Amino acid sequence: MSRELDELLRVMVRLRAPDGCPWDREQTPLSLAPYVLEEAYEVVAAIESGESASLRDELGDLLLQVVFHAQIAAERGSFDFAAVAAGIRAKLIRRHPHLFATDGATPAVGSAAEQTVAWEDIKAREREVKGGADAGHLAGVPRALPALNRATKLSARAARVGFDFDHADQSADKVAEELAEVRQAAAQSGAPGAADSHLIEEVGDLLFAAANLARKLKVDAETALHGANAKFERRFRAMESLARERGEVFADLDIAAQEELWQAVKRAE
């Protein structure tokens, strides 16, 4: 390992030492879990910003989480950072047999799409070998994933064994069907402002169907929704700004006036 990485590992050992940092010493894998997610999202934000210095810093913060968890595991006698690195190295070699196999029997992979298929096939075989309680075609899809991302992965796994629509149009029809069921459940719901369990279930079905449609259209649903969130935020802030320029208080405007502002902002883009 490089000198810098060696130094980083030594710093973490010092932080976790009996006379080290009280905060670092009291952390557990469970207490650190939210930070892993937070740092991963900050890496994504840095990528989207296009700022290389920001990306460098955020990758460092994410690496810290890896080092932190590895150190805790080492203290418990489970594994250490070297084992983590060795494990991912072995996995990369195992899942790229066309590059690393020595028998010459593995066919070459000519495109990223072919590599994706080969990668998933190898993962599926690995799951079969592991077996156990979490066996099956949906095994190994992390429950901690964002719900939209997990919905996409679950439907993709099902599709690999034929449980899928043939065409995106059929997925779109399913979205329309689920939307109709949401409308019906909403009309039958109880007290205004209180969603009952049936309505919640139907909304969930609608969102799952929408994620499946995105997959059929080869659109990453999480990325698409992220973009939609950013667009809504940009337009909403522009509406508020335009209202101020007109001497109006946005919150005091009726829906028709707010919609006029929305359309004006859209036209200006």
Count the domains: 3
In CATH, the topology of the largest domain is named Helix Hairpins
Q: What is the N-to-C order of secondary-structure elements (H for helix, E for strand)?
A: HHHHHHHHHHHH
Which class of the largest domain in CATH terms?
Answer: Mainly Alpha
**CATH architecture field of the largest domain:** Orthogonal Bundle
* CATH homologous superfamily placement of the largest domain: MazG-like
How does this model look, in words?
By secondary structure, this protein is mainly alpha-helical. It has three domains: 3-94, Helix Hairpins (Orthogonal Bundle), CATH 1.10.287.1080; 141-219, MazG-like (Helix Hairpins, Orthogonal Bundle), CATH 1.10.287; 224-268, no CATH class. Helices cover 72% and strands 0% of the residues. The chain contains twelve helices and no strands. The longest helix has 25 residues, at 221-245. The chain is globular, with a radius of gyration of 25 Å.
